[in-house]
């Protein structure tokens, strides 16, 4: 099940790995038209706030890239709790909780959350801490790791309170045919090479992002800023 489905990135990734997309939740007409054309057998559920997880056929995986605008360094950073858009994260958690309660904790087996890098630092790191706490409250039986002394986000020098991979880092454990083998795949091994240029941000769009960030007195991560400047033709 893909919540905040957009144009179906999670669905496409799943299908490429032999996972059948069953449900999608999206409200924008154009992305819905895209996923209806590409995944004709997938059921569309509409507004995420109107979905009851207990009433759906259970699924193994729930994916969701909840709205990022209130977490992004390019926005006003209203935050996870107070942001009208990013607070929709809690609707996804509610749906997962309802499904797990209706199946005695069996489904979904996995939940995947995607968001912007600014989620680590939003509200001084408290928002990402809240994200981890919400997942743990679903019955995962985990403790929330606290980085010391730095904030969330994998800042150099931070150490974690429990022995675990850095949550949110760009890597994944192998859960394929041999899940007992602790192999990891880096993001560079998964991403497509030679991406068509139509998927790139235009120079005008990159310049607009840089100007908005500057006008609001914000600072972008150095790598992101350099990429935007390069794409905008400033260097």
Characteristic key phrases:
single chain, 235 residues, alpha/beta, 5-stranded parallel sheet, two-stranded antiparallel ribbon, 8 helices, 7 strands
Structure explained in plain terms:
This protein is 33% helix and 9% strand. It is α/β, with parallel strands linked by helices and 235 residues long. The strands form two sheets. The protein has a five-stranded parallel β-sheet with strand order 3-2-1-4-5, covered by helices on one side. The protein has a two-stranded antiparallel ribbon with strand order 6-7. Helix 2 links the parallel strand 2 (23-25) and strand 3. The N and C termini lie far apart (42 Å). The model is unreliable at 146-182 (pLDDT under 50).
Summarize the structure.
With 235 residues, this protein is α/β, with parallel strands linked by helices. The chain has helices spanning 9-16, 29-38, 79-82, 89-102, 126-140, 187-190, 203-215, 222-231, and strands spanning 2-3, 23-25, 43-44, 61-64, 110-113, 171-173, 184-186. 23% of the residues are buried.
Question: What is the topology?
Answer:
Layout (H helix, E strand, L loop, with lengths): L1 E2 L5 H8 L6 E3 L3 H10 L4 E2 L16 E4 L14 H4 L6 H14 L7 E4 L12 H15 L30 E3 L10 E3 H4 L12 H13 L6 H10 L4
Parallel strand pairs: 1-2, 1-4, 2-3, 4-5
Antiparallel strand pairs: 6-7
